[in-house]
Amino acid sequence: MRDGMVENRGAGHWFTHIGLTIGVLVIFFPIWLAFVASTVSQPEIVSPPMPLLPGDQFFENYRKALVSGVNAPVALMLANSLVMAVGIAVGKIVISLLSAFAIVYFRFPGRRLFFWLIFLTLMLPVEVRIVPTYEVVASFGMLNSYSGLIFPLIASATATFLFRQFFMTVPDELAEAARVDGARPMRFFWDILLPMSRTNIAALFVILFIYGWNQYLWPLLITTDPSMNTIVMGIKQMFPSGDDVADWPVIMATSILAMLPPVIVVVSMQKLFIRGLVDSEK
Amino acid sequence: MATLTITDVKKTFGKTDVIHGVSIDVAEGEFIVIVGPSGCGKSTLLRMVAGLETVTSGEITIDGRRMNDVEPMDRNIAMVFQNYALYPHMSVFDNMAYGLKIAGTPKAEIAERVAQAAQMLQLEPYMGRKPRELSGGQRQRVAMGRAIVRKPSVFLFDEPLSNLDAKLRVQMRLEIKELQKRLGITSLYVTHDQVEAMTLADRMIVMNAGRADQIGAPLEVYANPATEFVAGFIGSPATNFLAAETLGRSGVARIGVRPENASLVAPDQGLANGTLLFAEALGAETLLHLRLTGGEMFTLRQDGTAPVPAEGETCGIGWDRVRELWFDHGGNRVRQAG
């Protein structure tokens, strides 16, 4: 009886693992195919069946992608994406930290109104207001610029809301102790609130970096100059129009390159990220 | 060191009056305890002195300087909070040094003053630790250290011991008393625990529903409570209150008898009769809970070695009539003639 139970649990254990392994393989397979495609030559891809093992064109394809690309060198597009993603993530965090600080710690006329206004913007997806936003950005002459890429996406109701919730769990006594210690509001923010929020900030940075990195529609609209292309939209731009022949190995190499920075960010900040989501250190 | 005066201070939150006018002159180095039940306004009063709440009317002065509109940091006060309010991401050293750092004190002096306080509070081995790595008692000490290093003119304590277990509370109580004596800093201490109030205070303010019912030295307050509320609040177990007519008296409404002033006598030989409901033997003393013939409850405290009657037995209760506390219908004390 006892043995049977152990055996049952053992079997369940194995089933779980097999299930998970299959899941991982299913999800990983397209990525593997992309990787394989980025290491072979163009004729090998187009002649079925497609190879399932890496070829010998790895360095050749990646060098070609990074240095010359199709419309613009991928290295340049990576840099553009990096500027945009970091700009959006850092900007969003700074702005939402400050607005949450204002909403939680200061009593000013219209405080509620402002909070709800910010909250309201959550209900409007970017796509809904993309035309007016384009108008504004265009009239400011910010097309084909980093500021045009970053500023329209920099306000974040979600992050403001998140920090507001976190600040509200910080005991009032702490703010009072800081006041008695002689800390003015910004000093309190900088010395106490900010270090206490660091795990939240890290978690948010990861999410927002990926959000910024994966922006597609907005960069597609406002960057007409290939040198301002970001990598995610750049991949689409590489697709041939009309009778051109697609350079699939280079496109696949670009896709793999586009995936790397978010992976690096997630892996390197994993510890902080999970701590930020799981526990609140008080 | 400084004098502190509170003159007819009132506080209103919206339309609710929380404090109805409290006045006290605190001498240099005096330890004042504000005691009262929850919601009596004691913490609000302290927070007004700290500058964390605005003063609706009246005046607070420290060393003769009007403080009503002065920022907390400029009042030269230090406060110990109920939950310690330590900065969780800072080490013990940084917690204690933070106020000095903001004030722009030179680094060497900060180190010296913090070291001095740490030594005084036996915190030296923990200077590099974070608050979450400390026990409750140690956190409490850090909170005190943070107050000490600033060399304030007034110490404010907001129920600092209420989060500690009973044994530690007694120990920290002694430490606070000893420290305050040694430093000689004028202190204001809020608590709901009358034992803390009795043991710590040079003088205490007994607050009841936003009023200072009585201000005086602990033993004076115990022996001569000004109101029925004070008589019931100070002293443990609480004073027994009997309706005067059940004892056949007139001229007063209620008569208070402290449990420690009453004793058991033979039935009908005392001033009242009662049935013993149950006895709590605490070792050194025994508390007897009786129901009087009139239906009122009466608690009596006797020596632990004295014989205890069986439960349900009828006993007589006697006390010295000179030590009775008389109160009128408004709850105010009526002095016994002679």
From TrEMBL, chain A:
<keyword id="KW-1003">Cell membrane</keyword>
<feature type="transmembrane region" description="Helical">
    <location>
        <begin position="113"/>
        <end position="134"/>
    </location>
</feature>
<comment type="subunit">
    <text>The complex is composed of two ATP-binding proteins (UgpC), two transmembrane proteins (UgpA and UgpE) and a solute-binding protein (UgpB).</text>
</comment>
<feature type="transmembrane region" description="Helical">
    <location>
        <begin position="146"/>
        <end position="167"/>
    </location>
</feature>
<protein>
    <recommendedName>
        <fullName>sn-glycerol-3-phosphate transport system permease protein UgpE</fullName>
    </recommendedName>
</protein>
<keyword id="KW-0472">Membrane</keyword>
<keyword id="KW-0812">Transmembrane</keyword>
<feature type="domain" description="ABC transmembrane type-1">
    <location>
        <begin position="78"/>
        <end position="269"/>
    </location>
</feature>
<feature type="transmembrane region" description="Helical">
    <location>
        <begin position="82"/>
        <end position="106"/>
    </location>
</feature>
<feature type="transmembrane region" description="Helical">
    <location>
        <begin position="248"/>
        <end position="267"/>
    </location>
</feature>
<dbReference type="Pfam" id="PF00528">
    <property type="entry name" value="BPD_transp_1"/>
</dbReference>
<keyword id="KW-0813">Transport</keyword>
<dbReference type="InterPro" id="IPR000515">
    <property type="entry name" value="MetI-like"/>
</dbReference>
<dbReference type="InterPro" id="IPR035906">
    <property type="entry name" value="MetI-like_sf"/>
</dbReference>
<keyword id="KW-1133">Transmembrane helix</keyword>
<keyword id="KW-0997">Cell inner membrane</keyword>
<dbReference type="GO" id="GO:0005886">
    <property type="term" value="C:plasma membrane"/>
</dbReference>
<comment type="function">
    <text>Part of the ABC transporter complex UgpBAEC involved in sn-glycerol-3-phosphate (G3P) import. Probably responsible for the translocation of the substrate across the membrane.</text>
</comment>
<feature type="transmembrane region" description="Helical">
    <location>
        <begin position="12"/>
        <end position="35"/>
    </location>
</feature>
<comment type="similarity">
    <text>Belongs to the binding-protein-dependent transport system permease family.</text>
</comment>
<dbReference type="GO" id="GO:0055085">
    <property type="term" value="P:transmembrane transport"/>
</dbReference>
From TrEMBL, chain B:
<comment type="similarity">
    <text>Belongs to the ABC transporter superfamily.</text>
</comment>
<dbReference type="Pfam" id="PF08402">
    <property type="entry name" value="TOBE_2"/>
</dbReference>
<keyword id="KW-0067">ATP-binding</keyword>
<dbReference type="InterPro" id="IPR047641">
    <property type="entry name" value="ABC_transpr_MalK/UgpC-like"/>
</dbReference>
<protein>
    <submittedName>
        <fullName>sn-glycerol-3-phosphate import ATP-binding protein UgpC</fullName>
    </submittedName>
</protein>
<dbReference type="GO" id="GO:0008643">
    <property type="term" value="P:carbohydrate transport"/>
</dbReference>
<keyword id="KW-1278">Translocase</keyword>
<dbReference type="InterPro" id="IPR027417">
    <property type="entry name" value="P-loop_NTPase"/>
</dbReference>
<dbReference type="InterPro" id="IPR003593">
    <property type="entry name" value="AAA+_ATPase"/>
</dbReference>
<keyword id="KW-0813">Transport</keyword>
<keyword id="KW-0997">Cell inner membrane</keyword>
<keyword id="KW-0472">Membrane</keyword>
<dbReference type="Pfam" id="PF00005">
    <property type="entry name" value="ABC_tran"/>
</dbReference>
<dbReference type="GO" id="GO:0015794">
    <property type="term" value="P:glycerol-3-phosphate transmembrane transport"/>
</dbReference>
<feature type="domain" description="ABC transporter">
    <location>
        <begin position="4"/>
        <end position="234"/>
    </location>
</feature>
<dbReference type="InterPro" id="IPR017871">
    <property type="entry name" value="ABC_transporter-like_CS"/>
</dbReference>
<dbReference type="GO" id="GO:0055052">
    <property type="term" value="C:ATP-binding cassette (ABC) transporter complex, substrate-binding subunit-containing"/>
</dbReference>
<dbReference type="GO" id="GO:0016887">
    <property type="term" value="F:ATP hydrolysis activity"/>
</dbReference>
<dbReference type="InterPro" id="IPR012340">
    <property type="entry name" value="NA-bd_OB-fold"/>
</dbReference>
<dbReference type="InterPro" id="IPR003439">
    <property type="entry name" value="ABC_transporter-like_ATP-bd"/>
</dbReference>
<dbReference type="InterPro" id="IPR013611">
    <property type="entry name" value="Transp-assoc_OB_typ2"/>
</dbReference>
<dbReference type="InterPro" id="IPR015855">
    <property type="entry name" value="ABC_transpr_MalK-like"/>
</dbReference>
